[in-house]
Amino acid sequence: MQVQTIFETERLFLRPANEEDATFYLELMNSPKYIEFIGDRNVRSVSDAIDYIREKIYPQYERLGYSAYTVIRKSDGKKIGTCGLYDRIGIEGIDIGFGFLPQFEKQGYAFEAASKLKEVAFEAFGITTISGITTKENFASQKLLERLGLKQIGTQILPTETEELLLYSLKRELRSN
């Protein structure tokens, strides 16, 4: 599989997050579930969102070739969520993460986007282990990680954090010829 910038599923486009997404990220990162389950990133203005994209997303994209992707619905071009592959300190492998605006939850978009990134992670980026972390209370994310094939392998407290998170993992199956 050749690595491309924009990935496509039946209903979605996934393209690298950029500064044009700042207004969307401001809305998403201040939605109640994002703050509750992912965390408060102190993004309070469009300028803060631009800084977040520049300081957190761009450097990893430049270093590894992947990071956060803005999820865009094909039918109307609406930005509905984010899904990404993250190199997190304290986690073995690459963390697959996702967050969607409340009005786009429970419609299969997160599974569709994350499934595509899981495929790309293994086939295009050569990632051998995908991990997932979630709070003990975030049952929807737990269910999604399991549906993606990840298995809970324990718990983890990330450096500079205090909350114990559930840790999931999936290792790439190497095919023999």
TrEMBL record:
Keyword match Manganese: no
Keyword Transferase belongs to the record: yes
Matching InterPro entries: Acyl_CoA_acyltransferase, GNAT_dom, N-acetyltransferase
MF-aspect GO terms: acyltransferase activity, transferring groups other than amino-acyl groups
The protein's name in its UniProt record: RimJ/RimL family protein N-acetyltransferase
Gene3D superfamilies: 3.40.630.30
Coiled-coil spans in chain: none
Keyword line: Transferase
Pfam families: Acetyltransf_3
Annotated N-acetyltransferase domain residues: 12-173
Record lineage: Bacteria, Pseudomonadati, Bacteroidota, Cytophagia, Cytophagales
